[in-house]
Amino acid sequence: MRLTLEPRLAPSARMRWLSPLVAAALTIVTGVILFSALGKNPLLAFHSFFVAPINSLNGLGELAIKASPLVLIALGLAVGFRANVWNIGAEGQLTMGAIVAGGIAIHYDGSGALLLPAMILAGALGGMAWAAIPAVLRTRFNANEILVSLMLTYVAQLVLSYLVHDPWRDPQGFNFPQSPLFPDTALYPILLEGTRLNAGALIPLLAVAAAWVFMRKSFLGYEMRVAGEAEEAARYAGFSATRAIWVGMLAGGAAAGLAGVGEIAGPLGQLLPTVSPGYGFAAIIVAFVGRLHPIGILCAGLLLALLYLGGDAAQIAINLPAAVSGLFQGVLLFYLLGADVLVNYRVRVVREDPHQRRAAAA
Amino acid sequence: MIDSIVPILIVTLGAGTPLIFAALGELVTEKSGVLNLGVEGMMLVGAVVAFITASNTGSLWLGVGAGLAAGTAIALIFAVLTLTLQANQVAAGLALAIFGAGFSAFVGKGYLGMALQSMPRGAPSLLSGVPLIGPILTELHPLVYLSWLLFAAVSWFLYKSRSGLVLRAAGESPTAAHSIGYPVIRIRYLATLFGGAMAGVAGAYLSLVNAPLWMEGMTAGRGWIALALVVFASWRPARVMLGAYLFGGVTITQFFAQGSGIGFASQAMSTLPYLATIVVLVLISRNLTLIRLNAPVSLGKPFHPDR
Q1: What does the pLDDT profile of chain B (307 residues) look like in tens digits?
Q2: Torsion angles phi and psi, residue B112, rounded to 5
Q3: Residue A315 in contact with residue A322, Cβ under 8 Å?
Q4: Which CATH architecture group holds A2-361?
Q5: How far are the Cα atoms of A131, B89, B157, B195, B220 from residue B162, in angstroms, in the given order?
Q6: Number of C-beta neighbours around residue A47 at 10 A
Q7: B81, A338 in Cβ contact below 8 A?
């Protein structure tokens, strides 16, 4: 008797949505086992990781602050992922968006009202410009967009490092590599007194609606979906592969650039050598766990944001390295990919020898 | 003249070595039809496990062995996901890269900033008698020699051995290989594990030899560069060697930049390996015929024997 995988006639719609939940549950179980193995009280660890961080209004505000860039970037990436356009350099596009918007905040000294809108626009364009490089190299020269967008992430981080170490360094900053603090007019207004929750969190919500309309109601969104699910059919229908690459890359770049603005015009309030704790990479997981669907991405973004908060909280409460959240992110994606086998296959218990079965069928 | 060239050559050969291990391992994996984008993650895990082992045992070679084992172990996760559970190879590779970064940061927390006792290098001293290049040969780390051995072994295996032919068949036409009775899935498992093992050694080289310390994300994109190298090499081992040393040469410009202090030069120089990777990818990839003739036909495509 053994277990075999038998292809389903059609992918199971139920499993498609069940599998992220299974993956999340397995990740939590793994976490509890890991905590116990490290000699921590698993209940206490679970509480301080998943419950305590969002037990207060302030905590919920922090959750929204962390979820915002994740949801926003994942929505942008999902547009490309649906068409098999693999932009994995969102971290670099976020950094570039922050650089361009930050440059405006540092150098602009007009009256305040236009500063933040200018930064938002510039940040989105900066992210798009950075994403346009892999797009043009892919469409013109067939260069792999995964590798190019990733290499550009390192380049963007080095550019930022140079800027905050040298030309944009705060003269009153005691030689720390950081820009001056931005004026209040360069910051998103606080939405909820007593928390850090700011108006920047509204952008991902708008983006969820926009992405839903784009993916479900627009012809271009339909083209992109066909390009990803049935390449041959897309070609036969005359859908342009070049356009799919451009749209996919630019959507991800714009979203990541906006997320970069959200960081520097939100919780950071200035440029630092690093403006993101890996949101651009975590957003890839958010996109997959959210099934490339806007609502799913919203839920997955909240889950991953909780992992970030839990990592920080666990470091303080039970003395676990904060890197544990990065570990959980990877584990979550592993479980998701593993559980996804049940979307296309069903598990069957085979009792007799499979060769005999095949012979009998023949 | 010789005096200034020798150190540069030694550093270049050293900087190219981790790329050789990682890229030759990935080459074998890709030749079997499996695209494992998780090289960076496997290298990080190899690096941290090697460092922890070496700093606890004081043995360089136990460290290298542990790095090899760790790289193999996490490649096994990838293999189970993609080969048994039929997960998308691109997604699983990205997962491996993210997991490797998180896992290595987690287990390496207690070892951050710790320096390793300097290890005996044990390069054979009789090599110093070789005229002209003697001083270079004795300065090289034994792992550099092992990387040359690996090159010879991989070249022989892929193109002169029967098993290598079968492995390439699994990458070119898995259906045909399966129908004449070769275990395609098992071959791909072994090739993937080999790639993981070599990425683990590459990581061990970084944390034990290149700079004997552990830092989060210390591979600094070398795993991704190794992936680009395989494309650059159009899936040929000899060109992997050439590319690895070219990139090794580019990487060491950073050492000279660091000497000049923090400033424009340092960051600008540090971007060079990444920019060079992009340029090289563009130059190679624009030649569609070259890619089509050399890339394994079934690279990245899942194969299920029952379908």
Answers
A1: 456 677 778 888 888 999 999 999 999 999 999 999 999 999 999 999 999 999 888 888 999 999 999 999 999 999 999 998 888 888 899 889 989 999 999 898 888 878 776 655 555 555 556 666 666 666 778 888 899 999 999 999 999 999 999 999 888 888 888 888 889 999 999 999 999 999 999 999 999 888 888 888 888 889 999 999 998 888 999 999 999 998 888 877 766 655 555 555 678 888 888 998 899 889 888 888 888 888 888 888 888 776 5
A2: -60, 130
A3: yes
A4: Orthogonal Bundle (1.10)
A5: 45, 27, 8, 19, 37
A6: 15
A7: yes
In 10 A of CB A266, how many CB atoms?
Answer: 21
Nearest to A11 by CA among A285, A332, A287, A346: A346
CA distance B43 to B26: 12
A289 in Cβ contact with A70 (< 8 Å): no
| Coil, strand or helix at B214 | strand
**A45, two tokens:** 């660890």
Give this prediction's pTM.
0.89
* Residues of chain B with C-beta less than 8 angstroms from the C-beta of A165: 262-263, 267
Q: Which of B80, B221, B285 sits opposite A144 (nearest CB)?
A: B285
Closest CA to B300 of B122, B63, B70, B87: B87
Rounded to the nearest 5 degrees, what angle is found at the Cα of A170, between the Cα atoms of A166 and A173?
Answer: 115
Q: How many other CB atoms are found less than 10 A from the CB of residue A113?
A: 9
Of residues A142, A155, A281, nearest to B98 (C-beta): A281
Task: Single out the residue of B274, B248, B281 nearest to residue A155, CA to CA.
Answer: B274
Q: Please choose, from the candidates B101, B215, B41, the residue with its C-alpha nearest in 3D space to the C-alpha of residue A326.
A: B101
CB B89 within 8 A of CB B29: no
Best of A16, A158, A292, A324 to substitute, by most chain B Cβ atoms within 10 angstroms, is: A158
CA distances from B51 to A214, B207, B254, B270 (A): 49, 6, 23, 25
B268 contacts A285? CB cut-off 8 A: no
Chain segment A28-44, per-residue pLDDT in tens: 888 888 888 888 888 88
Q: Do A150 and B278 count as a contact with CB atoms less than 8 A apart?
A: no
Cβ proximity of B23 and B17 under 8 Å = no
Residue B212 and residue B48: Cα distance in Å, rounded? 11
Amino acid at B269: M
* Whether A151 and B286 lie within 8 Å, measured CB to CB: no
Could you tell me which residues come within 8 angstroms of residue A243 by beta carbon, excluding any fewer than 6 positions away? Answer: A220, A223
What's the CA dihedral at B28, B249, B210, B256 to 10 degrees?
-160
Size of interface A-B (CB pairs under 8 A): 145
CA-nearest residue of chain B to A333? B95
Q: At residue A110, what is the residue type?
A: G
CB contact under 8 A, B88 and A337: yes
Distance CA A65, CA A306 (A): 11
| Domains located in chain B, CATH noted | 2-116+145-294 (1.10.3470)
